[in-house]
């Protein structure tokens, strides 16, 4: 009898010891052994932000491969509907027909900044003046307080979410018809075209502002986080990650991380406006 009691006591010691040495997973956190591959496609504005968040994510989950391609918002939305990627990326609101059957997750607020080269003296435009420049009704910088030079108007490709948001907010969905029109395929291309021509005007997401670009106030409001939050600066849009019925569960782990504390710190650090 004494021998049996001794065995039971020894067993209890090992059981308690084992429990003490087993770390508990904090409630609401993802398991540390995540592995697999998550594929992305879509907005060239969201892509670099997703990649930055991905670096922090991979530091915690090194066995997850993130394949973050671009192509434009429309491409990402179509890809998630087709089930060819796990996460679509968009930098505009979804149209009703695009939203059917998928789930958008907003990870940041983007401020679309109207930009000129820093040597261009124009720093203020009204929304009407900006619209008239892109519609070809104002064609010379002298008409808005600048030099006597023709305005080179730069637009993004039609697949761009930045283009879609700009056309909706500024042009009331009209087609840009300025006579001296240049097209930029990416946010980086847009910045480069404005930087190389003092007479150019363009627009970029707040996270894509490069050295040498000057910001233009619209209706007296500068493009800034406070002005975006209080509504005085009108050129804002959501940055979205989109999942669909064919997205694997690992995709949701990344999205939860992106809208969590660590992901949102990256958003702030890179110049975007947090959704938290």
Chart the SSEs and their pairings:
Layout: H1 2-20, E1 36-42, H2 46-60, E2 64-71, H3 73-82, E3 87-90, H4 96-99, E4 103-117, E5 124-125, H5 127-134, E6 152-156, H6 161-169, E7 181-184, H7 187-195, E8 200-205, E9 213-215, E10 217-218, H8 225-230, E11 236-243, H9 249-258, H10 261-269
Essential attributes:
2 domains; two-stranded parallel ribbon; 11 strands; alpha/beta; D-Maltodextrin-Binding Protein, domain 2; 36% helix; single chain; 9-stranded mixed β-sheet
- Tell me the CATH topology of the largest domain: D-Maltodextrin-Binding Protein, domain 2
Helix-strand pattern, N to C? HEHEHEHEEHEHEHEEEHEHH
Rg estimate, integer Å: 25 Å
What is the number of E strands? 11
CATH class of the largest domain: Alpha Beta
Profile the largest sheet.
9 strands, mixed
Q: Which spans of ≥5 residues are poorly predicted at pLDDT below 50?
A: 1-30
- CATH superfamily of the largest domain, please? Periplasmic binding protein-like II
Q: Kindly report the average pLDDT value.
A: 88
What's the helical proportion of residues?
A: 25-40%
- N/C terminus separation: 63 Å
Range of strand content:
15-25%
> Outline, from the CA principal axes?
elongated
* CATH architecture group name of the largest domain: 3-Layer(aba) Sandwich
Number of structurally distinct domains: 2
H/I helix tally:
10
């Amino acid at each position: 009898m004494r021998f049996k009691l001794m065995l039971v006591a020894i067993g209890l010691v090992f059981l308690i010891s084992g429990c003490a040495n087993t770390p508990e997973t904090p409630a609401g956190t993802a398991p540390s052994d995540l592995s697999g591959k998550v594929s992305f496609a879509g907005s060239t504005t969201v892509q670099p932000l997703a990649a930055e968040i991905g670096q922090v994510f991979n530091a915690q989950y090194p066995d997850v491969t993130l394949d973050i391609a671009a192509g434009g918002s429309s491409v990402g939305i179509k890809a998630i509907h087709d089930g060819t990627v796990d996460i679509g990326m968009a930098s505009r609101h979804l149209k009703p027909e695009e939203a059917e059957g998928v789930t958008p997750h907003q990870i940041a607020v983007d401020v679309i900044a109207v930009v000129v080269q820093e040597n261009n003296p124009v720093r203020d435009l009204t929304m009407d003046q900006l619209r008239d420049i892109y519609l070809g009704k104002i064609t010379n910088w002298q008409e808005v307080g600048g030099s006597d030079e023709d305005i080179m108007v730069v637009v993004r490709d039609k697949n761009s979410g930045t283009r879609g948001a700009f056309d909706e907010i500024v042009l009331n969905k009209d087609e840009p018809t300025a006579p001296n029109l240049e097209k930029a395929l990416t946010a980086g291309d847009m910045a480069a075209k404005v930087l190389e021509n003092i007479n150019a005007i363009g627009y970029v997401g707040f996270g894509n502002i490069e050295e040498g670009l000057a910001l233009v106030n619209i209706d007296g409001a500068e493009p800034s986080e406070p002005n975006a939050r209080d509504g005085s600066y009108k050129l804002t849009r959501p940055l979205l990650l989109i999942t669909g019925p064919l997205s694997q569960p690992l995709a949701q782990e990344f999205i939860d991380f992106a809208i969590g504390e660590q992901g949102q710190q990256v958003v702030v650090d890179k110049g975007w406006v947090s959704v938290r």
